[in-house]
Amino acid sequence: MKNVVVVGSTNVDKVLNVEKYALPGETLAINSYQQSHGGGKGANQAIAAARSGAQTTFITKLGNDEDGQNMLTGFQNDHINVDHLVTTDQAQTGKAYITVDQSGQNSIYVYGGANMELTAADVEAHQEVIAQADRVIAQLEIPLPAIIAAFKIAKAHGVQTILNPAPAKELPEELLRLTDVITPNETEAQTLTGIEVADEVSMLDNAMVFFSKGISMVIITVGSKGAFYATPQAHGFIPAFKVKAVDTTAAGDTFIGALASQLEMDNSNIEDAMLYANRASSLTVQIAGAQNSIPTREQIEAANQKTNHSKEQIEREKEQAAQYVAARIPDHIVLGLGSGTTAAYFVKAIHDRIEKEHLDIECVATSVGTQQLAEKLGMRMLDVNTIDAVDVTVDGADVVDDHLDGIKGGGAALLFEKLVANMSKRNVWIVDERKPRHSLEGQMLPVEVIPFGGMGVFRYLRDNGYHPAFRFQENGDIMATDSGNYLIDITIPKDADLQALSENLKKQTGVVEHGLFLNICDEMVVGGDQVKVVKR
Ligand SMILES: Nc1ncnc2c1ncn2[C@@H]1O[C@H](COP(=O)(O)OP(=O)(O)OP(=O)(O)O)[C@@H](O)[C@H]1O
Q1: Pick from 198, 217, 434, 394: which is nearest to 310 by CA?
Q2: 364 in a known ligand binding site
Q3: Closest atom of ligand 1 relative to the 245 alpha carbon
Q4: Whose CA is nearest to atom 17 of ligand 1?
Q5: Based on CB atoms within 10 Å of each CB, which residue in 55, 158, 248, 317 is the most buried?
Q6: Strands, DSSP E only, in 129-276?
Q7: Is the dihedral of CA 19, 25, 29, 33 positive or negative?
Q8: Active site residue 253
Q9: To test ligand 1's pocket by mutation, which of 191, 224, 275 has the most ligand atoms within 8 angstroms of CB?
Q10: Residue whose CA is closest, atom 1 of ligand 1?
Q11: CATH 3.40.1190.20 in the chain, residues?
Q12: Ligand 1 centroid – CA 221 distance (Å)
């Protein structure tokens, strides 16, 4: 369990629902008045961390008033350590007056109040609890000297510092030098670096600016798209969960608190921790309000389990499709064996049939992985260079459109798969229900490039609006294909002419192959309790 100290703001949100905004001098009656809600970025992040199981201490300043008392009780209910909370008679507890009209548009006035009274001396008086923490988190709703004081104490004791630069403003170099991890959203990143966040490449450009200031990890959240992370050694993008969002208030705060509760100090589980944080905030956005919508660890795990259940279903569908096709493979043929998890089900299923029925089937593999699996099972393998044609190849696919054109290469085996597919008299694709789509627009398409000069292809793709990103392995090394090439993932533009795109990519010097498989698939078999077969 991580020991987290949050130094930040507490606000009480007073929400008015109005039909329309009053003009200057106008008085309007309203129908509903929502009760006060807990808010403030510091409080939200402390609650998110505590509900995810972190041992959480909150250093904040409250007024000696009813709002302050109510907030304190709420923190105690969430098992937050409030021993280091400070109160003042000089100002009231922070408040945000929020007016929401019928279209969901809001206007907000914030009274910083006690938050603006939090001083460096207040923080220094509680240095012991910071010194003992694993990490300290701060946002920008309190005075900068208080944050700098907290981070100085943290750095002196080897405690990790996380800065959530929200709301965005220019930051002193001193604070950036004291920051280990920075977590802006896309607009905050742009405000701080001057570089627009448009795609993974520009996110990496943003990260470089932060690295040059001495920050060692950058996490950029991009709303319903997900979140990006980068260290000088590795980077990656973790997509958000697709949910119906009703109110995104506190999404970012939930993400940061949840992440801080899970991330190992050596960042070794960064992708898992971000996946957890994405899940946590995907639950927050499905409920109106701020602190009431921040989920507990149990709720996050329950939501994960539901998905695991559907993961099992997907595996079942892959196996059903594989078995359906394996049962219909004729005897005395040369059979192409595809690559990837779905194709692996097929390899096992056809192996069982060959053994049981003593079939005379020789096979060709489309990847080193499949070759090894087939050899391990004792199947009769042929060298692709010794044959003129393959009778049938059975393979998986990443996505397939209504015309049975598809994308392959998610598993990095596209070159060998295409070679074998092109020499096959018949190609059958086996997929689970997620794979068929009406069109390939917006889908990720892998492009295999030679390592020498790969950057030139990357620049061409970037300058022509394909949003390229090199593919990396989990350990941060660049991914190499079976033939030692690199993969660049691009996005298929809207209204793209696939044939022209395919030809254009092949024309670029340095491109070995790409994952568009046009006019290749003869038959798609979709797994399910009722297997669906679609023929060209
Ligand atoms: N519509 C959404 N659907 C699913 N997940 C979402 C959605 N919006 C946000 N999230 C999740 O919340 C994370 C943080 O969101 P975002 O980038 O909007 O933060 P933010 O701008 O700091 O939010 P806020 O200021 O509202 O707290 C995202 O990385 C994503 O995981």
Answers
A1: 434
A2: no
A3: 1
A4: 223
A5: 317
A6: 135-139, 160-164, 181-182, 217-221, 226-230, 235-239
A7: positive
A8: yes
A9: 224
A10: 224
A11: 3-9+40-87+116-306
A12: 7
Selecting among 253, 395, 405, 432, the annotated active-site residue is 253
Identify the pLDDT of residue 474.
65
Whole-number Cα distances in Å, 270 to 135, 228, 230, 278: 15, 11, 10, 12
C-alpha distance from residue 118 to each of 88, 167, 215, 319 (Å): 9, 17, 25, 60
Q: How far is CA 199 from the centre of its chain?
A: 13
226 known member of a binding site: yes
Query: What six digits make up the tokens of 497?
Result: 């002419």
User: If one looks up domain 309-536 in CATH, what number appears?
Assistant: 3.40.50.1360
- Nearest CA to 383 out of 433, 419, 350 is that of 419
Q: How far apart are CA 168 and CA 184, in angstroms?
A: 8
Q: Which residues contact 152 (CB under 8 A, 6 or more apart)?
A: 178
CATH architecture of 3-9+40-87+116-306: 3-Layer(aba) Sandwich (3.40)
Element (H, E) at 32: strand 32-33
Ligand 1 atom with least separation from CA of 248: 26
Tokens of 492: 């298929």
> What six digits make up the tokens of 85?
């909370």
Token pair, residue 266, equals 């050596």
Q: How far is the CA of 156 from the centre of ligand 1 (A)?
A: 33
For 258-302, write each residue's pLDDT tens digit: 999 999 999 999 999 999 999 999 999 988 778 888 999 999 998
Mean pLDDT of the chain: 92
- Token digits of residue 412: 């990095």
Residue nearest to atom 20 of ligand 1 (CA): 252
- Degrees to nearest 5, angle at CA 502 with 496 and 507: 125
The residue among 96, 157, 104, 99 whose CA lies nearest residue 128 is 157
**Among candidates 169, 10, 33, which has minimal Cα distance to 100?**
33
Ligand 1: which residues within 6 Å by Cβ? 166, 185, 221-224, 226-227, 240-241, 243, 245, 248-253, 255, 278, 281-282, 285
User: pLDDT tens for residues 65-76?
Assistant: 999 999 999 999
Residue 35 has pLDDT above 70, yes or no: no
How many residues are listed for the chain in this entry?
536
DSSP-based three-state secondary structure for 420: helix
Q: Which residues in the chain are classed under CATH 3.40.50.1360?
A: 309-536
Distance CA 130, CA 153 (A): 7
